[in-house]
UniProtKB/TrEMBL annotation:
It comes from Lepeophtheirus salmonis. It is found in: Endoplasmic reticulum membrane. Its cofactor is Mg(2+). GO terms for molecular function: ditrans,polycis-polyprenyl diphosphate synthase [(2E,6E)-farnesyl diphosphate specific] activity. Belongs to the UPP synthase family. It comes from the Eukaryota. This is ditrans,polycis-polyprenyl diphosphate synthase [(2E,6E)-farnesyldiphosphate specific]. The gene is NUS1.
Length: 261
């Protein structure tokens, strides 16, 4: 004979009522049964509240175990080919950055651009590479022979708005000085020319940009590269979990780009 969950709960409830009755003095029940029933009502209400509390804690435990046990990236319908991360905080923890890079490599992303406006990551590139080598993370500057290594790029404010200003001054000098060997006429300036002068390689534009720091600003992140980029925000890069990063890619996988007719 097997009992269902409801039958077990009913039996436990009856046992609890029996215990409550046993704790109450028999004389008080004979003299004024309504007071006893009133006390019993509060006992039952207390039991219900405790059960709700247990169920709530149990649900939280199940959610925690589920998030910890599975990475969740197996269910992603698509992942970005090129990911950009803009660190908008003044204090950047390179150990946390290397941890994020390891997650991104595990997800199969091929190109990663790291950007911070102060150039802290660029100044400490050697230390970041050291952390990545310790974590056995294969990237383009490492000694790994794997073909599927991560193409890692590091950028700063020098690669953003300042690059546009330098390009404008360069074009101005080349159009004004006709004696220059590389004269550019005003009618020769086109979108294709600007793109070729700004782009230092043939990498595609980022599909996703993650901004860490709680600011709704790109802080000069390569503005000509994010025309069609999906932008998501994280409060900070410190204390992140892998599930936080994967949740962004779940949102991205639901995005649909429409370029018009």
């Amino acid at each position: 004979m097997t009992l269902s969950v409801y039958q077990v709960l009913l039996i436990l409830f009856v046992i609890y009522l029996f215990i409550c009755f046993k704790r109450m003095p028999l004389n008080s029940f004979k003299s004024n049964p309504w007071i006893v029933l009133k006390d019993l009502k509060f006992e039952i209400l207390s039991l219900i509240l405790r059960c709700v509390h247990w169920l709530y804690n149990g649900a939280l435990w199940v959610i925690w175990v589920t998030r910890r046990g599975g990475s969740g990236h197996e269910t992603l319908s698509k992942i970005p080919h090129h990911l950009g991360i803009a660190f908008l905080e003044k204090d950047i923890d390179l150990k946390e950055v290397s941890k994020m890079i390891s997650w991104i490599q595990e997800l199969g992303i091929q190109i990663l651009t790291l950007y911070d406006v102060n150039g802290h990551i660029k100044l400490n590139t050697k230390y970041l590479h050291h952390l990545l080598d310790q974590g056995n993370i294969a990237y383009n500057s490492s000694k790994s022979t794997l073909k599927s290594c991560l193409n890692l790029r590091i950028a700063s404010h020098l690669d953003g708005k300042k690059a546009i200003a330098d390009l404008a001054n360069d074009l101005k000098s080349k159009t004004l000085h006709s004696y220059s060997s590389s004269v550019i006429k005003p009618e020769d300036i086109s979108e294709k020319l600007i793109h070729s002068l700004l782009t230092t390689d043939s990498l595609p534009d980022p599909d996703v940009l993650i901004r860490c720091g709680g600011l709704e600003s790109n802080m000069g992140f390569l503005p000509w590269h994010i025309r069609l980029t999906e932008i998501f925000d994280l409060y900070s890069h410190k204390g992140l979990r892998k599930a936080d990063v994967i949740s962004i890619f779940h949102k991205y996988s639901r995005c649909e780009k429409r370029f018009g007719a």
